[in-house]
TrEMBL record, chain A:
Residues 58-246 form the ABC transmembrane type-1 domain. PANTHER family: PUTRESCINE TRANSPORT SYSTEM PERMEASE PROTEIN POTI (PTHR43848:SF2). This is Binding-protein-dependent transport system inner membrane protein. It comes from Celeribacter baekdonensis B30. GO terms for cellular component: plasma membrane. GO terms for biological process: transmembrane transport.
Amino acid sequence: MKTLKTYAILYLVFLYAPIFLLPLFAFNTSTIIAFPLTGFTTEWFTALLDITEMHSALFNSLKIAVTSAVLATIFGIFGAMASTRYHFPGQKGIMGFIMLPLVLPEIIVAVSLLVVILKLGLSTGSWSVIAGHTLICTPFAIAILNSAFAALDPSLEEAAYDLGETRASTFRRVTLPLVMPGIVSALLISFTISMDEFIIAFFLTGADPTLPVYLFSMLRFPKLLPAVMALGTILVVLSILLITIAEIFRRRGAKRAGLKDTGGFL
Amino acid sequence: MTIKAKPERKPLISLQNIQKHYGEYHALRGINLEIGEGEFFSLLGPSGCGKTTLLRTIAGFEDIDSGSVMLAGKDMMGVPANKRPTNMVFQSYAIFPHLTVAENVAFGLRKSPLSKAEKAEAAEAALNMVGLSGYGNRAAHALSGGQRQRVALARALVLKPKVLLLDEPLSALDRKMREQMQVELIKLQREVGITFILVTHDQEEALVMSDRIAVMFEGEIAQCDDPEVLYRRPKTSAWRILLA
Amino acid sequence: MLVSPTALYALLLLAVPLIAIVVISFLTQTGVRDFAPGPSLVNYKEALSDPLYRELMLRSLMVSGSVTVVTVLLAFPIAYFVSFGVKPEQKSLWIFLITIPFWTSYLIRVFLWKVILGYNGVLNSGLKLVGIIDEPLTFILYNVNAVIITLAHAYAPFAILPIFVALEKIDRSYLEASRDLGESRTMTFLRVTLPLAAPGVVAAVLIVFIPTIGDYVTPKLVGGPGGTMIANMIQTQFLRLNNAPLGATLAVLAMLIVAVIAIVFLIVGYRAAGGGKKGGRG
């Protein structure tokens, strides 16, 4: 087990190594991303403030991410409630299909949506990116909300009903508060996925790029590389922050329901 | 089967020829029963005999195929569970984990015309009755099994139902707790004075606590009598069940 | 029915487009948005006969296959460690730490590998600085090797999780029983743990193999001309050559091949796990 532990630590180092390079070189004075380090500077970060196209790309991404997260979570609530509470014909098949985007290569999703949009004579835009992102985030939302709803003792809702509540007020007073951590978690995860997503945005974006798409265009200019490192640092820190918050909420929800922790949205 | 006779009490619940199927499965095969006011009544039988189904039918959580359920002279057909004068203590107790003990107990009082202070008083009185006075501010998820059960009782009783339904309330407790709670339930029922209907598979429990017991088997009532009569002069079918 | 909004959305945005792709593969494109009427097999003929596409497909399969093997092999010990070597209250922390990189931007991570493996990149400059090499290594960027390394890094968590779940499900008393009956630790692992973990390994293989075949970003950024994969060609057909039907055809063929391989593997894996007869509490 000792050797395994060493292996595990080395593995983690390997996993995180590239990411640690980001802050390392984002504060480095050299324009070339290589050793040795030349000096400390924050100029790349301040340079980011001047790139206005990046700002609009960022704003676009935020808009898309918030919308996709909300839609995906709503779809996720419906899907999770249906799959944990009821049994209907073809349940496995339908749920399996809804979860399909988890294993499909994203390019297939992107390309097929593009085909439909072209065929319908429509033009791409933020709406098409939102549509695509919602599609791939919903399975994640369902997975998270499935465990949130499954952890809910069904007799809790029956008890509320027995004590005089209606179905609607039962949902509001009992169900919703108890799955709220799961909802928050699903929102944060979907938001993060959408913010980081590249391929679908690349294919389906209109005139205004999303941040990852803009980032991709920056990669062609060697002079911009340090700025890319700076931007990358910010994005990675934000992602990690959001995911940590999501995890805290998930744990809090599980604790409230009095469950043991099984380790994630599995 | 003939209607089971009721004792000197006024009949409160009248079940006539209740039939229920779950798909192919015949869960309740013609239940005829009258339960009186203030009676401590038990439904006893092995798992799968239909006792919980019958309880839930009275509560309004299960529909019936045919027959009638009358509560206090009113037909309960079409009356949903949240509008019936019954309240239930669930097998898992179903204490809301996101609320305090006091909030749990006062949960059903939301729609009542009482003032906030009156509701708090009523909740505290109910907690007192079950021996948990002062527990109001505790977080619900930090309670022991026995404490949870008492909160469930308080929560149901504070609404002053005409009938209290208990679904295997003692099965999750250890032996010592169980014996203690048996005594407390009897005391409670006498104090509150309303009808208790208890579902159990434990014959000792039923014999100790009940005024009358209905022994059920495969969807039917095999025998319905006082504990004494049941113990000394059981009908053959009921004897088989009691021995099991 | 509660599931209807979600199901409807999936139907409209997943089923319909997938069907559309199949349909389009049988058409020919004449203008930017014009399609010649009538189905034809022209695209399929071209896709199947032109050696370029065949080579791309084979390369994609080879890359995916290598990535899958490497990733799953490296992942198993980690999953085993977290399941058997970590205290229960720390397990979810480990899993959390392992999955965090997955939640950061994929594009950035691939770009970072480009930066690492470059001629004047981090690895080379670092090794030069320390004195291990004099000349920069050239075999690590802008070819298939770079693609494999980058993909293996990106998909590592994908492989670890299913194996971990499967290992967690194994009732520990099975292992104790095996030891009690006289088996050594190694033999217990081979005869009990591994077969019971097989479903997790199968899942890990599929979860890595299927998406990596269709990866676009990695081959584009670090693959160079010799490291492009089928997704890059699909994109080229769609967005640069205005030949959506051919792109669609390639996509359909790629999906079919992957589906066949996946099904075959599932059957093999199912048999290896004992056909569910001596499964865990799965």
